[in-house]
Amino acid sequence: MLSRGSHIIGVVDMTASGAAYIVPEDGGDDVFVSQTNLNSALHGDTVKVLQYARKRRRQPEGEVVEIIKRKRELFVGQIQLSANFAFLVADSRVINKDIFIPKDKLKGALNGQKAVARIIEWPASAKNPVGEIVDVLGDVGENNAEMHAILAEFNLPYTYPEEVNAAAEKISETISADEIKQRRDFRQVTTFTIDPADAKDFDDALSIRKLEDNLWEIGVHIADVTHFVEPDSIIDKEGYERATSVYLVDRVVPMLPERLSNFLCSLRPNEDKLCFSVVFNMDGNGIIKDSWVGRSIINSDKRFTYEDAQTIIETGEGDFAEELKIMNSIAVKLREARFKKGAVGFERVEVQFEIDSNGKPLGVNFKESKDSNKLIEEFMLSANKRVAELIGMNELEKNKKKEAKTFVYRIHDLPNADKLDTFTNFVRKFGLEASPQPKESVSQALNRVLAAVQGKKEQNIVETLAVRTMAKAVYSTHNIGHYGLAFKHYSHFTSPIRRYPDMMAHRLLQSYMDGAKSVSAEKYEEMCEHCSEMEQRAADAERASIKYKQVEFLKDREGELFDGVISGVSEWGVYVELIDNKCEGMIPMRELDDDYYQFDEDNYALIGRRTRRRFQLGDAIKIQVVRANLERRQLDFALAPEADNAWMK
Questions:
Q1: At what angle do helices 500-513 and 521-555 cross, to 10 degrees?
Q2: What DSSP line would sit under 79-132, residue for residue?
Q3: Exposure string (b/e) for 125-145, b if CB count within 10 Å is 16 or more?
Q4: Which fold has domain 4-69?
């Protein structure tokens, strides 16, 4: 028996084998815990571990003695019904035990259906946890059931509380004469929105008018959501809990009730709308000569889709063609200036599905960011930056030297040095050099590499790896700047319909403009952490919905051959991204049975011990779709027969 050591508190990081590593809160060495010593702890749980006395040169080991906080209570899975009881077989690998459901806790769930269960107890002597069904989602494979299952898996809501919708219905749409008097009136100024074709929540508009001395007044008008949503109201509390709208392949799960997001606050054409605006006086080069920030009223003249606006920019013909041409020209200059200062530009390929009325994917397209997208992006960035500067640089205060008031910043730290080294070594395989050359910054070197792979088969992989070198952008009251945008001050202000931090920024900005004292940094930092966490969950759910649709798309194509690129290499197989549709699957190691393959971590490769055959990240490869497993959202590939044969000849 090993002698005992000290206790540590940490978070469970489960491995595929069922064992886990405990990542200590204090940043010490990870502690290995075997499956038998986890004592019902699950991935992500915060636990107390009794660490065994450490042997020389051995990884620290221990056992879980207390579960301090469960990462999750709800689990999604499939019902397996017996005569007097049932099990929920969880979809997630987070829990590797089926959940026992007593018959009186089934809530009407039928055998084989998707359902959500809550663990109510896990007796120390029991192999399986005991749970109850809290919601029946529907039949396996049915689109609504599967999308709701993804939302539930990431602990995200998939319905809207009736009482919150009812509260939204009571909000008046009338704008009083007194309200208009307190606002700057832009209703006679040329104004329009540019949004995706399927959007209904238009939360930003642009206005433009010519001033003297070759200057242009460019207005960035943002829906005044906080005019309608009172702090601590039922709508506000629900919005904070959600913190973000969630965008799945076939639907939007809104942060705010639809009456607000698609009607009261949506900047629809030919309707008076209340806004919070950032207005710039700029020259033709995008140099800001003056600016104004405050509450306003607008009346949009036109609702453009990105495609409409792009056609007008390219042809010079159509509604407001001259205005779009001028704004695009200024946006190009703003973008150039940003990159000159060290911004990093990722043009990652986004997948877009054509789906039928039942949610079945019929085809895959790729979204492309064009001038119309970049035009909106640049003016939104300028507005977000200006708002952050007002508070962060004490521009509202008489004493510029005193500590800035508490505010919500969008921060982005420097890239990870080790990950940058790894990336630099990898891209050399393609004849690219990511190390900064003389007088070149890290960001300029990255941009050079990203530009060099545009349109090439390795573009998506290089861009994906480049993104992984970057820190994650998060919300915080502690401003460290935004590395990726090359801004010293940056906030999120321009999307309050779909992001709660923007609502926080609106409220803080208005209160400080009214002369209020600084709010509690501690309270707002906690709110920022919650919003960052919910943003990550929403991104994970979006990725899961894309993965599900990719697997569903290839379900009818099992046995077909596709060209791909090796997108990842590990001890258990080779990941391949298909060129035609960006679907990613894996060739398991068991399929590579012509040799014994060893994983070369430094070179991202599997190498055959006898043949020296290599499977390396970025290599072109032809595969066959063996299995599209919808339950696990997993694609299994094998080498195409001719690829096997070509090697053997």
A1: 150
A2: EEE-SSEEEEEESSTT--SPEEEEGGGSTTPPTTEEEEEEEEE--TT-SS-EEE
A3: eeebbbbbbebbbbebebbbb
A4: OB fold (Dihydrolipoamide Acetyltransferase, E2P) (2.40.50)
Please measure the distance between the N-terminal and C-terminal CA atoms of the chain and give it in whole angstroms. Answer: 57
| pLDDT at residue 647, rounded to an integer | 45
CB 215 within 8 A of CB 282: yes
**Three-class DSSP category at 265:** coil
Same fold, 4-69 and 557-648: yes
Phi, psi (rounded to 5 degrees) for 141: 90, -20
Report the C-alpha gap between 385 and 340 in whole angstroms: 17
What is the structure's pLDDT at 117? 96
Backbone angles phi, psi at 517, to 5 degrees: -75, 165
Render pLDDT for 372-397 as a digit per residue (tens, 0 to 9). 999 999 999 999 999 999 999 998 88
**At which residue do the structure tokens 């209160």 appear?**
511
- List the strands of the sheet with 272-282, edge to edge: 184-185, 288-299, 272-282, 216-223, 204-210, 191-195, 302-305
Q: Is-contact 26 8, C-beta < 8 A?
A: yes
Please report, as a single letter, which amino acid is at residue 246: V
Domain parsing of the chain, residue ranges:
4-69, 74-140, 164-411+476-544, 417-470, 557-648
Q: Are 411 and 368 in contact (CB under 8 A)?
A: no
- Name the residue type at position 603: N
- pLDDT of amino acid 56: 63
CB within 8 Å of 114: residues ≥ 6 apart: 76, 77, 78, 79, 136, 137, 138, 139, 140, 145, 146, 148, 149
Distance CA 350, CA 369 (A): 9
Q: What is the per-residue pLDDT for 5?
A: 65
Buried b or exposed e, range 209-233, using 16+ CB within 10 angstroms: eeeeeebbbbbbbbbbbbbbbeeee
Can you tell me whether residue 278 is helix, strand or coil?
strand
Distance CA 403, CA 391 (A): 10
Amino acid at site 40: S
Position 71 scores a pLDDT of: 87
Predicted pLDDT at 644: 59
Burial 473-505 (b: 16+ CB within 10 A, else e): bbbbbebebbbbbbbebbbbbbbbbbbbbbbbb
Helix (H, G, I), strand (E, B), or coil: what is residue 246? Answer: strand
Angle (CA) 506 512 518, round 5°: 105
pTM for this entry: 0.91
335 Cβ neighbours under 8 A, 6+ residues apart: 374, 378
Cβ atoms of 80 and 89 within 8 Å: the answer is yes
- Sign, CA dihedral 458-459-464-468, equals positive
Tokens in use for 240? 């904070």
User: CA torsion sign, 174 to 221 to 481 to 533?
Assistant: positive
Low-confidence ranges of the chain (pLDDT < 50): 1-3, 645, 647-649
Q: State the fold for domain 74-140.
A: OB fold (Dihydrolipoamide Acetyltransferase, E2P) (2.40.50)
Q: CATH says 557-648 is which class?
A: mainly beta
**What's the pLDDT at 173?**
94
pLDDT at 648: 38
pLDDT score recorded for residue 1: 32
